[in-house]
Design brief:
disordered N terminus; Porin; single chain; 1 helix; mainly beta; eight-stranded antiparallel barrel
């Protein structure tokens, strides 16, 4: 519901600014295009019984960015990013094995490190200042960042036991978990930064963004308690380094 409410109010505001831009006499480039590289720290916040966050991951994204002029000092910021996302969870898990033709169930704890990859399309309203120092201006932005899952892997570490056969544990890396993750994620994007104008055609951009996820990125049920849905929301900070023309 929160996602629908944000989009419902966000899109009409952008449409209004686009109409105002048609009558604007500001002498600005209608479109700026550039490239970025963004190191990031990401984590997952679980929202399910007995699920716990178990650490963060250092990741990055890269891609294209664009500023579309709406009116003087106001822009529509968008782009196309390939984003690598990670995080760690631990939760109750049951593993079923067959020993000498006899099925055995081992109950214990799973520690999973997620390695996810997304195509992201941000859409934000960017507000820039005039030059506050020579060739230097500041900006802030707020909007929606939508991501589409193109790869989902995990490194698993399980330890459990069975009253009859005793302890059992295993590790497995690069496990394909595409069917355990959602196709689409969405987050609130908030950011700020600086733009250093080298000349009329080239600027260096540096800023920081916070992506506050508000959609669950996991699917399925817990293997120990089938009444518990797997739920976790993604968060990450990223440092944006880019060149825009």
């Amino acid at each position: 519901m929160k996602y629908q409410l944000n989009m419902k109010h966000f899109i009409p505001i952008l449409s209004l600014l686009l109409l105002l831009n048609m009558n604007s006499e500001a002498q600005q480039k209608p479109f700026k295009f550039g490239f970025k590289l963004s190191p990031a720290i990401s984590w997952m916040s679980p929202d399910a019984v007995d699920y716990e966050g178990n650490g963060s991951a250092f990741t990055f994204s890269w891609g294209l960015m664009a500023d579309i002029t709406l009116m003087e000092n106001y822009y529509l910021a968008t782009g196309f990013n390939v984003s690598y996302f990670g995080g760690k969870l631990k939760y109750p898990h049951m593993e079923s094995l067959e020993t000498n033709g006899i099925p055995m169930e081992y109950t214990g704890e799973m520690q999973r490190a997620y390695n996810l990859r997304y195509i992201e399309v941000p859409l934000a309203l960017k507000m820039k200042t005039n030059e506050l120092a020579k060739n230097l201006l500041f900006f802030g932005q707020i909007g929606i960042n939508t991501g589409f899952n193109i790869r989902a892997k995990a490194n698993d570490e399980f330890s459990g036991s069975n009253p009859i056969s005793g302890d059992y544990s295993y590790r497995e890396n690069k496990l394909d978990i595409k069917d355990e993750t959602t196709l689409v994620k969405a987050s609130l994007l908030v950011g700020a930064g600086t733009e250093y104008v080298i000349d009329e055609s080239v600027s260096i951009v540096m800023g920081i963004n916070f992506n506050n996820g508000f959609t669950n990125i996991l699917t399925g049920k817990n293997t120990v308690d089938s009444s518990v849905d797997a739920k976790a929301v993604p968060y990450y900070f990223e440092l944006n380094l880019g060149v825009i023309f």
